Amino acid sequence: MNKGGGMKKMKYVVVTGGVVSGLGKGVTASSIGVLLKACGFRVTSIKIDPYLNTDAGTMSPFEHGEVFVLDDGGEVDLDLGNYERFLDIKLTRDNNITTGKIYQAVIDKERRGDYLGKTVQVVPHITDAIQEWIERVAMIPVDGQPGPADVCVIELGGTIGDIESMPFTEALGQFSYRVGAGNFCLVHVSLVPVLSAVGEQKTKPTQHSVRGLRSLGLTPSILACRSTLALEENAKQKLSQFCHVPAENIITLYDVPNIWHLPLLLRDQKAHEAILGVLNLLGISREPNLEEWTSRAELCDMLLEPVRIAIVGKYTGLSDSYLSLLKALLHASVSLRKKLVVDWIPASDLEDETAKENSDVYKAAWKLLKGSDGVLVPGGFGDRGVEGKILAAKYARENRIPFLGICLGMQIAVIEFARSILGLQDANSTEFDPDTKNPCVIFMPEGSKTHLGGTMRLGSRRTYFQVMDCKSAKLYGNRSFIDERHRHRYEVNPDMVSRLEDAGLSFTGKDETGQRMEIVELPNHPYYIGAQFHPEFKSRPGKPSALFLGLIAAAACDQLDSSLHAHKIPNGTAKKISLYQNGNAAKFAKIPTDGIYSNCNGVHA
């Protein structure tokens, strides 16, 4: 709608959560963005995380799920990955606001003397800094078009009433007044539980949550109620009466088979009309065009032919740790009309040590690995499970099972090759054995060994193909170079490359210097590829990542040749999806992570 500055003021939609965390605020915020985009508006997103960390880079995946990496090298919350995938946009590190960033900015100003002798306080200095940050970042174009977006969707992490989010709640209260009526819409996501003993939908938790919200200076325009079933009419009327929200502005987010249904669920309850009404945009909007989303959601359960992918990782106890991987696998499997089945294998369960301590777990892990159609070894840090990952790579190489190694997974493949083919039994990474006589993987010279935060090789970097007659180049459409996102401290030792290549390994992608290995392949294997970058971060529902597409095509036996000969990624929009996920991946209660059948061989810390 913003064609050369037609719209005068930025509009803001703020999504907050009440009663409990993990209700699916991120997916709800993303779905609101999809709906507004379908109505013809340009949309950007901001995620507020009230924790004190400057960014998500130093947090364990068990604490907060995966660390999502942006083009500019920002290490951010996984919800920004949801925004990018749903809205097909490219965000910046500043689109993730944390308490740490805000306080750091204010303290830096204080040290410079910018406050002119004032006592620096939470109100007004911290709250002003939050509002200024929001206004500044909302104006950054993220969709490839010039000029700012029309609507900025802001998600406030955590739960209303948390001590750590108080400055943000106060700032948003001031902000609603600052931008004025008609430019600010608050959507409050809350829980309406059903007590099994009574079978009645209970509205009291939401009433209390809204009361808390009001006491903090925020008034909800729309209530989005999480429940197993659609809200009954009497529950809706009760909420309307006690929360002072019109009944037509109360929406139920009930359990659906897959998250592609959510924008449709919102549309069917006319959430777009409620939001646009509050923002005074109804007059210039169009009816939402959600054809692709509709076909994707409606056909999601029609895929019958399974493709089994074993993920051999360190953080398999929490599938949110590999959220983007799961999405990328799903996007690829859907485009090839396969039903994705994920077998989770904790890497340490494949090791000989486990065979001695718990033979049943060891046998179950190997049974899953041997029953898979393809093997994926993702990135990770630390030495736990490394030998198990090496065994998985060895199994895939020797048995000609399609294999994709990402980041550490690529390094693992190189180490395994050096041990098995070159006969270097102590070949290793200096990350795991600083004294190894055959360091296949070494610490990057520009890295820091004293500071962990933000000191890796991060963000979008260019990879140049060394030969065009290779699987990876063909999957990427025979382009001479590609730009993918990175997050690593260690790299393949350039001094060992010639020995490895003489033995049959092919480094088909390198950086601009030719010294940093980016893609490795085994030419005489059906599909054995390692990538130093993380291709999963740029995968989209209608535009699957090339290397994941190759893995699924090879695992499905009959489709890799056609994908390679097409010299491009199939542009099949994700029309059919099979979405069922065991475990807690989706942050949307019973809503599964985008349609993946899942087998989990034990949960390990």
Automatic annotation (TrEMBL):
GO BP term, pick one: pyrimidine nucleobase biosynthetic process
Catalytic activity: UTP + L-glutamine + ATP + H2O = CTP + L-glutamate + ADP + phosphate + 2 H(+)
Gene3D superfamilies, per the entry: 3.40.50.880, P-loop containing nucleotide triphosphate hydrolases
GO MF terms, alphabetically ordered: ATP binding; CTP synthase activity; identical protein binding
Location of the Glutamine amidotransferase domain: 319-552
Matching InterPro entries: Class_I_gatase-like, CTP_synthase, CTP_synthase_N, GATASE, GATase1_CTP_Synthase, P-loop_NTPase
Keywords annotated in UniProt: ATP-binding, Glutamine amidotransferase, Ligase, Nucleotide-binding, Pyrimidine biosynthesis
Name listed for the protein in its UniProt record: CTP synthase
